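Before the break, one more example. Copy the sequence into your notebook; we will annotate it together after we see the structure.
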Amino acid sequence: MTPKPSSTKTEILAGISTFLACFYIIVVNPAILSQAGMPFSAVLTATVLVSVFGSLMMGLYAKNPIVVAPGMGINAFFAYTAVMGFGLSFEEALGAVFWSGVIFLLLSVFQTREKIIRAIPPAIRHAVSAGIGLFICFIGFQNAHFIVDNPATLVGMFSFQDPVTLTFLAGLLFTGGLLIRKVPGAMIFGILFTTALAWPIGRFWGDASAFNLGVPTLVNYTGFFAWPDFSLVGKADILGSLRLIHIPIIFVFTFTILFDGISTFVGLAEASGLKDPDGSPQNMRKSLLTDSLATLFAGLVGSSSGTAFIESAVGIEEGGRTGLTAVTAGLLFLPFMFFSPLLSVIPSVASSIALVLVGSFMVVPLTKINWQDPAEALPSFLTIVLIPFTYSLSVGISFGFISWTVLKLITGKSAQLNPILVVISVLSLFFLWI
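Here is what the structure looks like once it is written out:
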């Protein structure tokens, strides 16, 4: 895909679109980390700080249209595994996040992460992009309550007759029509249109709060204003987290964010055409340094690891091609440090539409995979399906690496293997084992 030309207006609209697609993290991250005993309001403040810091650095330093914020998945590992499972205090877990950031930084300074990206076979890169697209789409359907739990089949459609489902489908088709007609800011207009449709729900058909439809739900807040809570800043137990028993936690933080970040950069580059002449993601070294510093910063201010957000594809599809997109999105996070209850104005059923549509755009690289060659097709297929099926970028790409390497070995083509990829495959096995 050839990058589209850009303008200041386009970049700002793209930044707004990206922000609307990922602002949910301001509420979701505190909701998850508060389960680890951390104050909700303090995590919210930390989430905004990480999002602003990481996105501004990505835009101003790396000059990429990619938002950086606390990552989904790793926050669940932080709360439910590191703290509630392994028994770390949240201060020690924050210290582990800090040290994983230090490791990222060293890998980035010595350009090890760049070598890792270049060692990834092109077919796996294409598969990662498609897998991320399906993952984004799945998240969108879930957030819209279109796809729900089903005891018999694990997942299923909620109800075609439900007003939320009908609102989501109406917004999806409306936004799709705007995109086909190439209306500037189509994603924004689609989200606003769906928000307007969603408001009657709960006033005519039941409880709006069940679907996050305009009912402020943030705890300990009155009205629409709330002062920032900086009580978690500097609370990381940096030395305590270095105990030998905690090293596996630091490793998992490191591995997960390492490959989540790599997967995101590769996937976005493949889907958008934002590449350097050698085919690697645009401004990769500076982007990886930004990713690293965002994680280090997250540990210091009181949040789980920061990472590049796959939802940045929303702004890229809107035409965002420069750092101004990331700067715009980053600055939009800032007011919600003070006006966080306003987040409830945009319901999840509206913001989910952007995720589903962007997911469809990101499967385009599938056409570049040689599906007639089983040695290329099987690892690609495993990568594509396991990213959404396991709800993990890291698991999906790990199986892609492992299967690619094993198939080369058992077919007598070990000479074609990149040594770095072999090391990655071994580490992937270790990651899956623990």
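DSSP finds 17 helices and four strands in the chain. The longest strand covers residues 147-150. Try to locate both features in your own notes.
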